[in-house]
Structure formats: C-alpha cells, structure tokens
Amino acid sequence: VAKVSPDILANFFNDLENDSSDLETYATGHPDMADDLSSLIEVAQSIVPPPEVSLELLTHARLRAGLLYQMAQTGRPSAKARKLSVREALRSLVGIVAGIERIPAMVTTAVIVLTPSFGGGVVFAAESALPGDTLYPVKLSFESVQLVLAPNDEARAEALVDLAYNRLTDLEKASLAGRAEATKPAVDSYTTDVSEASQLLSEPTASDQTVEVLTNRLETDLARHEGTLAHVELQSPSSVTSVALQSADDIQSALALAVARSQDRGQLVAATSQGSSRPASGPRLPVRSAASRRGLAVTMPTLGTAKASQPSQPANIAAGAPSSGSGGSIGTAALRPGGTPSSSGQGGSTGSGGRPGPTIEPPQSGQGQGSRTHDNYRHHPDPAHRVFNPKRAPPTRSVRPVKQPSSRPAKSPVSVQAGGTAARPAPTN
Amino acid sequence: LDKLSPAPIPATIANDEIAHVEAAIRGDARAFAALYDRHAERVFRHVFYRVANQSDAEDLTQQVFLQAWRAIDRYQRTGAPFVAWLLTIAYHVVVSHSRRSKPTATLELEPVTNERWADPESETMSRFERRAVREAILRLKPDQQQVIIMRFVEHFDHADVAAALGKSEGYVRVIQHRALNELRRLLVHEVKS
User: What's the angle, vertex CA A35, arms to CA A31 and CA A15, rounded to 5?
Assistant: First the structure.
C-alpha cells in the first residue's frame, strides 16, 4: 500500500476545509493511496476538541485581578514598570470578590452556562449590565480594576473621572429603561468617584492642567446628564436627591483649592508667557455657581475672563465667532487655553489607542483656540460624547459671580448664548 | 469533518482586537485586559485539555497571559492570529510545568474525571475512546503534539500554525503527517493491547 505524502495529506485537508473536494474524489485520483489516506483521515476525525469547559465567574475574576496585579508589579521589559501598592491591589481584589459574592449562586451558574454560548466571557455579560441587574455589582468591580493600574494620583483621578462618567451613562440608560428606582448603586458609586477624584485633584501635587482638564470633564459630564438626574430624582427622590448637589460641591471644592493653591504659589501658567489668553493670575477654572447648583446647568469661567476678549487672542465668546468643526464651543470650553494640533475639531482619540479619558498634554503655543472643540468631548471614552452638540446645551447660560477663594474681585455677570455669541461687559483690567 | 473548518472571526471583532493588541504593545494594560477577557476561556480550555487538572489549568492560564504581556512586543513579527500566538505560549508553559511536576502528576496518569468534560456533542464517542485518543496525543513528540492540537483541536490552518510556531508551512505539513501516522500506530497498539 502506497503511503500518502505530507503534501497530499495537507492538500486534502485544505480542500476538505474549503469544501472543494472530498475523500471519494481524492481516492479516485490516488487509488493506490486510498487506504492510507482514509486511515489517516479516520485518525484525524477521532481527535475531538475539548467540550466547552469554561472558567467560572469567580475564577475568571480572580485570575484577571491576579494578572493585572502582576502586570503592574513586574511591567514589561520594554515598558515602564508600574509600581502598585499592596494596599491598592488588595482593595481591588477584595472589591471584586465582594461584588461577585453578592450574586446569587443560581444566577452565577446561569451566567457560566450561558455566556460561552454567546461567544464571550463573563465580563462581556456584565459589561452591559445596568443598575438593577444582578450583574451590575460585577460590572462595577471589574471597572474598578483600572484604579489599580493608575501609577500615580493624577492617573487615578483620571480613572475616577472615567468611572464617574460611566456611572452617569448607566443612570441615563437605566432611566430610559424605566429603572430609575433601581439606580442607587450607580448614584452611590458616582458620588464616591467624584468625591475621591475631587480630593485627589485638591492635593498640592496635582498639576494645574490636570485639575483643569479633569474638573472640566466632571462639570461637563454632570451638566450633560442633568436631564437624566432630574428624571431619576423624580422617580426615586430618596436615592438621588442630594447627588447633584454633593457632586457639584465636591467639584467646586477641588477647584477652589486648586485656584487658591495656584495663587499662593504665584505660579504663572506657561501659556500666558507664550501669548495665550490664559490669565496670568492662575489657571482659568470653571466653577459652578453656588446659586445655580440646583439647576446643574451653569458653568462659568471665573478667572481671567477679561483676557479672553483681548484682540490679539480672541476667544470664541468674546469674538462671537462660532468655532469650526462640529459645533460652537460654549462656556468653559471656548475659553479654555491650550489646544491640539487638530484644528478641525472633529472627534478622535490621539495616541492612546482607544484608551478612555483625556490625554493630558501641555499647552501648545501659537494655536488659536477659536477653532477647536471641547477637549472633553474629543477625548471622551464614549464616541457619541466626543463631538460637542450645541443643540443639547441650554440655549442661554447665565453666569453669575462666584465667591472667590481669595481676594480676587468678582467678575461681572456674563451671558453666553448658544452658537458662540456672547454679551459681556468690557474688561475691567 | 465539519470540525476541521475553523469558525470565521467577524471582521469587527478582528479589527477591535487589532486595536487592543496595538494599544497593549504600547503598554496599555487595560487593552491587554480586554484581550484577556476575550481569550481567557480558549486558553484555559487549551491548557485544561493538556493538563486535565482544573487548578493547574487556572494557574497556567494566568501564566500564559503574563508571559504574553511581557513578550507582546514580539507578537507582530509572527503574523499569526493573536490567539494562536497565545496558544503557542501556552504550549511552552505547559511543557515547562510538566517538567517541574512530580511524577504522580504526569499527564498520562491524570484521569479525565471532570464532569464537564463530557458534553452531548462528544457522547457519540465512548469515554474510553476519547481518553485513549487524548492520551495518545499527549504521548507524541512535543512538536507533533503542538501541531496536532493546533490543527485538529484548535482548528488553525497550516499557515496560521506555521506563523505561530515560527516555522515554514512545509515543516507543519511534514510534522502533521508524521504525527497522524504516529497517532495511528499508538491507537492501533492501544486497541490490540
């Protein structure tokens, strides 16, 4: 009996996999090898893949947490090692296990059985969970792992802002799904995330630019979800009554501390000396008016607004010109200094490979800010959130004086209209 | 023979995976965690097939991904599907584990007693036959074992196996041929004995 050659055997498998031939055809073409070929095919057919043995939910989470911990500890030869405190790692691990342990055993079993059928792991099942779902605690626990990976306080604050945004998105989806009464876990998580982020941003080690970028994101996210919060509050007053106020207080507290710290240091912003419209007295930070917290719709630039109307560097509001790209920037977005190489203002992440959250970059000199869109949207993890839509913003925002953390005189009220026009008094300094 | 055809990967998933891999190469741990979420099950099944021990398979699965994270810079040069690359790492991790293991924990002596091992699809083959085939595979030479598992258990085509192993396609064809002949010899011997 002639033996089948490796090439004939391999070609037969290829043809078989492409449905371009079968054993009978091959046997006809190679009658002397037919017996050997059919025998080897029989052997190949006897090799059955393992049945669907899947990782259990707890095991998957434990291995994932352990993997991330070791990744953070050891790093890669080509990558900067990320050191991690044992306390943070344990906190994450405990959080994961605690979150999973709250799941009833039957549901856990169902997830283990069903999720492989849909081609994904348990994480995929939890990813779409909403407040009120059994897997929602798992989702929160999995997401909190990214805090473990934060190499420093600023990165941790950035991760917390990401998480806070995710919670607002959950609230919105739950609200649309008619589950407003079950949103307490998301509300609690949001409040905690914002509180911790604000605390980190208030630390003396936080850079002005990080504080500015992240607080702008917090404010913008909160403002954009005001409708959702109002709806949830109506449906479930007990769970959400104070969340907006608390979060606004936290954000403002962080901003006030950051401004005071910057003034104490007498630190000049680099962009100022490079011709930017950024105020020389410190970072321009949006502060929520105390009188308007309840409405959740008012943000304002409290510092250096006069600079924004300088002819040499006209800001959007002062010049009354709508920004190019996807829409006119309103309020703090239009007044924020710095810029990006992209002048079109369209969305798209830069350089982070899809990693959510803003990329904190130093201010770029010589780049006009009148033709850029909101960084917070452009870098936002949610693609739908990256392009600023002026139609979703309130048509008019009344900006009122805010109590300053220092002896700085209060600014005059400014009324900013949608579309990039503004009516503001002449600068006083 | 339907099982010889690998399931096609949807283009959207493949593109998404490429983005995650590229981000992981740049050091994005979260992107790598997403790759773990996607492939942990398959790597675990692959390892479990070879070690037939739940606890060992879990630990080795974690090791596979940790090694992949450390070596992901080298992935792009192979040109193989990412999961095929992971399974190649898994092969070396299992071999290394086998060398360290005590004799009582050798693969041949480890019975397949996990209840989940049996599923309706494979009930047509007797438990004894399945076990005999699996144990025969694990008695093949390491290179033959690797090719056979990647070809007929994981359903990668010749080109992908070659890319994952860093060998030529001709090498894979030859090893496949030798492995099937050896497997036939072992199974015939098993039946006679």
Answer: 70
Taking only the tens place, the pLDDT of each residue in B30-51 is 889 889 999 998 899 888 888 8
Helices B29-51 and B82-100 cross at an angle (nearest 10°) of: 50
- Tokens 């939890």 label which residue? A126
- What is the CA angle A132-A138-A144, rounded to 5? 115
DSSP state at residue B153? I
ipTM of the complex: 0.73
* Single pTM value for the model: 0.41
What SS3 state is found at A367?
coil
Token pair listed for A292: 């308007």
SS3 A393: coil
Q: What is the pLDDT of residue B175?
A: 94
How crowded is the C-beta side of B39, counted as CA atoms within 13 Å? 29
- Name the CA radius of gyration of chain A, rounded: 28
Band (pLDDT 50/70/90 cuts) for residue B185 is very high
Residue from B88, B92, B104 nearest B53 by CA: B104
Measured CA to CA, the distance from residue A338 to residue A325 in angstroms comes to 17
Q: Return the closest-CA partner of residue A410 out of A418, A419, A401.
A: A401
Do B62 and A7 count as a contact with CB atoms less than 8 A apart?
no
CA of A324 vs chain B CAs: smallest distance (Å): 29
What is the mean pLDDT of the segment spanning A291-311?
A: 35
Q: In whole angstroms, how far apart are CA B111 and each of A269, B146, B148?
A: 69, 21, 21
Give the A window 58-97 contacts with B, CB below 8 Å. 59-60, 63-64, 66-68, 70-72, 74, 76-80, 82
- Say how far apart CA B85 and CA B81 lie, in whole Å: 6
What pairing do the DSSP bridges indicate for beta strands A422-423 and A414-417? antiparallel
Return contacts of A403-406, CB within 8 angstroms, 24+ apart. A403/A290, A404/A259, A404/A302, A405/A256, A405/A257, A405/A259, A405/A260, A405/A263, A406/A259, A406/A260, A406/A263
Considering only CB atoms, which chain B residues are within 8 Å of A67? Answer: 33, 36, 62, 65-66, 69
Kindly state whether B12 is in contact with chain A, defined as any CB-CB distance less than 8 angstroms.
no
Element (H, E) at A368: none
